[in-house]
Amino acid sequence: MARRVSARRVLVSTAAAWFFGFLIFLPILWMFLTSFKTELEAFATPPTFLFFHWTTENYATVQGRSDYLLHALNSIIVAGGSTIIAMIIAVPAAWSMAFAPTNRTKDVLLWMLSTKMMPPVGVLVPIYLIYQNLGMLDTRTGLVAILCLGNLPIVIWMLFTYFKEIPKDILEAARMDGATIGRELVYVLTPMAIPGIASTLLLNLILAWNEAFWTLNLSTSKAAPLTVFIASYSSPEGLFWAKLSAASTLAIAPILVLGWFSQRQLVRGLTFGAVK
Amino acid sequence: MGQITLQGVHKSFGPLNIIKDANLDIEDGSFVVFVGPSGCGKTTLLRLIAGLEDVTGGQILIDGNNVVNVPPAKRGLSMVFQSYALYPHMSVRGNIAFGLKMAGLPRAEIASKVEAAAATLNLTAYLDRKPRELSGGQRQRVAIGRAIVREPKAFLFDEPLSNLDAALRVQMRMEVTRLQKQLGTTAIYVTHDQVEAMTMADKIVVLNAGRIEQYGSPLDLYERPANLFVAGFIGSPKMNFISGEIAGRHGAATIGVRPEHLKIVKEGEGWPGTVSVAEHLGSDTFLYVDAGPIGTLTVRGIGELHLTAGDRVWLSPDQARLHLFDQQGGIVRR
Lengths: 276, 334
Hints:
Oligomer: heterodimer
Shape of chain B: globular
Structural class of chain B: alpha+beta
Mean pLDDT of chain B: 91
Low-confidence stretches of chain A: 272-276
Low-confidence stretches of chain B: none
């Protein structure tokens, strides 16, 4: 017998879901609202919710003070570039570990994961010095390299788990059917792995877009992505909440839109394999 | 043509010897079943023939050519997997056509061959469906269709029916046998189910711990098992083995008698025993008799025997059908 759910329970659950959904969304909403307040109202206690003096002056100031488009372009190059390079390295790596494992495959995977357990600040000084010597401070190339390397373990792990889900029999069937390795990849494996590849790509893009530690420490102006742009509004002269909010809203807008359109893909990718 | 010969084939994974010196001659057009307990190496042997595993030593000849260094696709064999291994993103048509597409056949020829294969297997109505929209039996048919469409030298079946329910398994068993006879293509079929082996095979290969124990026709194996293992593995219920004094009287270490060759005789004439379990199937009655020092004996009686647990019975073996085994478990020919 199917479980019966009473109408009241549905109502309570729905209300609770909306409540928690709203709670999680609240900081983003608050930031969005604050970005339209004056600096004075942004500080006001008790805070005003909707009934305040709406103004777009913060956006104008932010645009006037710093070059949003340059930072946005940097973000796109750094996040996009590091993701693409990471995927190019990770797909064959995950493929070989999933389908041609050796005795050491597990160790390699665990070792890669262990690099993520180390706090990045632990290697900040050596990396900074290396970058300084190589002249890679405040360059897009430098940021692409560090973000790509930083996210590579996660990308390989995600792809590895997706590829693991693909039954070996199917690949063997393709081999029996006369497919060469190249054709096996193109006609059989890739179409089956597309949901996994797509969600890995999206997740990595979001991670790289939001990465702040390395971008803040290794870039200042020329190569600085949007994270640095936001941080520049919390300055020694004091906190400008409204302007900071405006800058943040501008910074997260592109990735928020991307996330909105790809949410179905993302959720499917993240739960892939959990339910058979 | 599809004559397959194994000469001294062995396979080890590291220190583990999975296949030990396998020699086998499979005639063109015959249906050969590899049977054995799990872990005996039957699937490995099939995969060696397919080329999905490399041999550690020995030769595999297909129509006289050593194929040990030939990739799977070039061996001209096709395989049906236990999990069906259909391409989930392709339609039934795409699945069946894939091998032909890889071989670079012209489109019109592919289409006509796919149609023909689908017609043989009653799949015409499902050609545009995806595998997930099919039942287990239909998926199995698609897997078989994918195998026959390439007109291979031999079919390799790796426990293809084990995921089907009992009724469907019996039906598919007949269909596979009929199809193989109709096409006249050599087939190698791996199973752990000895009923499948007995009913489908022209010849059976009994494997145990990586060794070929016996190779022969089903009735050959049943009537003239080469050793204790084959005697115990082929036949259901299992053959009764008796050792000790009674075996010694026949000049053997162990004697074997099949449940159907034990007769219930008059009081005082044979081995006495007490029925511990009686299974009444209507067509047969299986008795499990506690025969004291001899051990537990299984008796198969035709029809209904009207005996229940606790009844005293006297059993006598059919002397002409006793199997005698020596100390090493080998058969003693009489």
